[in-house]
Amino acid sequence: MKNYRGMTLLEVLVALAIFSLAALALLQSLGHLALGPGRLADKTYADWVAENQMVELRLQSVWPPLAWTQGSSEQAGRTWYWRWRGVEGELPELRALEVEVSATPWQAGGTPLTVLRSYVMRP
């Protein structure tokens, strides 16, 4: 019976493959962690813009039309693009008010970072 010392070439290659897959998974998860705080800050500012827009509409007692109304505002030194619309509900005197906020213009394919929904009574 032979007594082997050390690892064969095949065992070394398998071990390298396993360690490289583990390293790739670790790098990918670290990449997601690095992007997290910036995304969270953008979402927070977008939430503030949506809330500001919602308060402004409530103060004006706006009965929201069913078509989108678009605009932009400044927050934290950046331009944020918002849009809002009314959504029909079960009751004719009650309508949902939906506000969406994006970091890019809607015409350029902006996707909402946040969506805020509330309900409005007919004035």
UniProtKB/TrEMBL annotation:
It is found in: Cell inner membrane. Residues 40-120 form the Type II secretion system protein GspI C-terminal domain. This is Type II secretion system protein I. It comes from Cedecea colo. PANTHER family: TYPE II SECRETION SYSTEM PROTEIN I-RELATED. It comes from the Bacteria. Type II secretion is composed of four main components: the outer membrane complex, the inner membrane complex, the cytoplasmic secretion ATPase and the periplasm-spanning pseudopilus. Keywords: Cell inner membrane, Cell membrane, Membrane, Methylation, Transmembrane, Transmembrane helix. Component of the type II secretion system required for the energy-dependent secretion of extracellular factors such as proteases and toxins from the periplasm. Part of the pseudopilus tip complex that is critical for the recognition and binding of secretion substrates. Pfam families: N_methyl, T2SSI. The keyword RNA-binding does not apply. Coiled coil: none annotated. Cleaved by prepilin peptidase. InterPro entries: N_methyl_site, Pilin-like, T2SS_GspI_C, T2SS_protein-GspI. It is a single-pass membrane protein. Belongs to the GSP I family.
